[in-house]
Amino acid sequence: QVQLVESGGGLVQAGGSLRLTCLGSGAIFSPNIMAWYRQAPGKQRELVASMSTDGSTNYADSVKGRFTISRDDAKLRMYLQMNSLKPEDTAVYYCNVKGLRSFDHWGQGTQVIVSS
Question: In the 8-state DSSP scheme, what is residue 52?
């Protein structure tokens, strides 16, 4: 069974930083794309950043230049460094991994609250 567990969320003032970690376990095969999504109250879940096994990345326009995604496949970990946080970054952040043959798994989420 594949499990993804997020950590690192919390309450931070605007302009501050947080680092989210996604710890994976189980059979996570390559190639895959690991990603961070977020869902704010009353809004749809949206892609924040993704990184494939070849190292290519994709960011939402709203976080470009502020957030950095990285991954350590040897440790089955993915990170999201979030700098210059804004109140609009407040959301539950989810870890996701997608691969071949409908391989698609989600974590439970970690809450990020940015106060103004």
Answer: E
- Sign for the pseudo-dihedral over CA of 72, 29, 67, 108: negative
CA angle, 66 then 69 then 70, to 5°: 140
Q: Flag whether pLDDT at 95 surpasses 90.
A: yes
d(C-alpha 6, C-alpha 65), whole Å: 22
In this predicted model, what pLDDT tens digit does every residue of 4-51 receive, in sequence order? Answer: 999 999 999 999 999 999 999 998 888 899 999 999 999 999 999 999
Planar angle of CA 65, 21, 53, nearest 5 degrees: 75
Residue 112, pLDDT above cutoff 90: yes
Q: Which 8-state DSSP code applies to residue 29?
A: P
DSSP characters over 25-85: ES--PSSEEEEEEEE-TTS--EEEEEEETT--EEE-TTTTTTEEEEEEGGGTEEEEEE-S-
Backbone angles phi, psi at 86, to 5 degrees: -120, 155
